[in-house]
Amino acid sequence: MRLIVYYLLSIVLMCLSCSSYSRDVTVLASKWQHYTNEDETGIYFDLLRLIYHESDLRIEITDYHRCLNLFKQEKADILIGVYQSDLPKAHYAQWPLDKDAPIFAFVHKESPYNNLASLTNKTVAWQKGYGFDQFFNTIPNPYLVSDLETGFRLLQGKRIDAFFDYQLNYRPKEHTDVRFFKVHDAATLYLAFQNTKRGRLLAKIYDQRMPILRQNGVLASLFADRYLNSGLDEFVAH
């Protein structure tokens, strides 16, 4: 029902319709609660359905490292939620997607660590493909894990000193032996498009329709309480 309301609010988008991309739009994403859920709901999927409303989205959800590899093999039109440095050869719209959440260090509650400096020369893990290495020069050899569950399991078993991830993935009832502290502020996330004629067209459409969605209040409704932290409210295209 909520998505139907978004479509009604953004009906003006029809004037920008482009038939040249009318076939399915293929999308890759890793699972992020509230944003890209396994059942293909979530803020980012709803946003793309609004932007590319003439087409059906064909969505594949997998781990981020595999997303990067599949995108490089041109198996999808769009990869959701990347740092531009992760895919420097991709094409990017001017408009960002969101601001990534701050990165936190999760440590065992009995550990002595309380800031980034205290983790120098320690065993720090994060998920493979996340690209966190660009932010943490003091951790040249991170232990890469395939998924969130593995990272927390290793941490609670005291096999690593810290696991870097996002606070939204912390589950107090399950991670009872864990505490955390922030190690990096929010960074900008983008949609990656293929650097092809079709990819550049999809990026152009994204740039055309995002300001309309903002002006109509659709972005604010879609992101809800996350909108002010998204950076979309004050974004100015050049």
Mind explaining what this structure looks like?
The chain is an alpha/beta fold and 238 residues long. It has two domains: 2-14 and 22-99 and 187-226, 3-Layer(aba) Sandwich (D-Maltodextrin-Binding Protein, domain 2), CATH 3.40.190; 103-184, 3-Layer(aba) Sandwich (D-Maltodextrin-Binding Protein, domain 2), CATH 3.40.190. The protein is built from six helices and eleven strands. Strands 1, 2, 3, 4, 5 and 11 form a six-stranded mixed β-sheet that branches. A five-stranded mixed β-sheet has the order 8-7-9-6-10, with helices on one face. The longest helix is centred in the last third of the chain and has 19 residues, at 197-215. It is elongated, with a radius of gyration of 19 Å. The model is unreliable at 11-18 (pLDDT under 50). Belongs to the bacterial solute-binding protein 3 family.
Number of strands: 11
Overall structural class, as computed from helix and strand content, comes to: alpha/beta
| Percent helix | 25-40%
Identify the CATH class of the largest domain: Alpha Beta
Cα radius of gyration in angstroms: 19 Å
Write down the CATH topology of the largest domain. Answer: D-Maltodextrin-Binding Protein, domain 2
Beta-strand level of the residues, as a percent range? 15-25%
Q: What is the terminal-to-terminal distance?
A: 35 Å
Mean pLDDT metric: 90
